[in-house]
Amino acid sequence: MTKFEYEFPRPALAVDCVVFGFDGKQLNVLLIKRGIEPYKDCYALPGGFVHIDETIDDCARRELYEETGVTNVFMEQLFTFGALNRDPRDRVVSVAYYALVRSEDFKPKGGSDASQADWFKINDLPSLAFDHAEILNIAKKRIQGQIRYKPIGFELLDRKFTMTQLQTLYEAVLECKFDRRNFSGKILKTGLLNLLDEKVLNVAHRAPRLMSFNRERYQELSEHGFNFEI
């Protein structure tokens, strides 16, 4: 078959990855320090250009691994960013991805175009290259919206956990504080939790009760959603 040559200029296609990490106390984001121009030595989201022989999903996984060493992360597409001057090199359209993981499970290390990679506190970030601050902000709003109607992120806790630990997760993502009684009452009404006949051991004060997730209810809410407004 004769190869068709397209005569008009066309934009380059790239991906950017927003990986949020929860460490049990606060929300972090995975950043790289760029090792090449443009924006050499500036911080940015992991990402890069799509190869001609790969899908954008494969590109996102490859770039994340090459630049940070992080692999086996489930990511979802966030948004497509195509402002005319978002990249000084060329006309570049970027498909952004996002994920929420346990940051303690991943020890990032810079590679490829990245001189280093590390976790940064979500409220103490350096200036970011390109339009990555905008991408990060939209990703943060996405997970803040999702956590109110889907039980995302619950797998970021241990198999057995306390109500305080669950509340800390919600407060970290939503960047607010909840009344303890209102929070526990609301979450218990969802039927998501199994109250266990176990308590935290070796604590100085009254030992909190442990709980686990009701996996059947979790799956149901994951598929159909729920309203978790406090």
* Tally of DSSP β-strands: 9
Q: Roughly what percent helix? A: 25-40%
Radius of gyration: 21 Å
The chain-level structural class is alpha+beta
Average pLDDT reading: 90
User: Which residues sit in consecutive blocks of at least 5 with pLDDT less than 50?
Assistant: none
Oligomer: single chain
Major sheet characteristics:
7 strands, mixed
Shape by Cα distribution: elongated
**SSE topology string:** EEEEHEEEHHHEEH
How far the N terminus sits from the C terminus, by CA atoms, comes to 61 Å
* Tally of helical runs: 5
**How much of the polypeptide forms β-strand, as a percent range?**
25-35%
Spell out the key features of this protein.
single chain, 230 residues, alpha+beta, 7-stranded mixed beta sheet, two-stranded antiparallel ribbon, 5 helices, 9 strands, 27% helix
